[in-house]
Amino acid sequence: MLFQIYKVSNSASGMAVHDDCKLKFLELKAKRNHRFIVFKIEEKIQQVIVEKLGGPDESYEDFTNSIPADECRYAVYDFDFTTDENCQKSKIFFIAWSPDTSRVRSKMLYASSKDRFKRELDGIQVELQATDPSEMSLDIIKGRAL
Known about the structure:
The radius of gyration is 16 Å and the shape is globular. The longest helix has 17 residues, at 104-120. It has helices at residues 2-13, 19-31, 60-65, 104-120, 138-145; strands spanning 16-17, 36-42, 47-54, 73-82, 88-97, 126-130.
């Protein structure tokens, strides 16, 4: 019975996730090969794909510059920080970017596919929904990490 319910909800969004998405996320999480990953829904093939990988030395500014200003995207960012006790830590952020200026159809597609896609990425620690660059500023990231 549960399998049938999952199968229905899975086909309801109709969005497949390319294996590369999971593979690159595992590399970010386990090997720390990437600082960030930007994912895009390829509407023609109804699939989430990797659009851009950020190298381990890239900055948060490099990450935000990789996200289009007027198109929806999913992204994962590996944020390194130091706690008040002077401990080095890292948190993996999932960011759902849905700017007000993007197409309504696109916003609906990203919103309806988000939970299923996020389930494929095991290890996300903080989720952020942003419609404006100020909602995913470095200060917000730092505040959510601590």
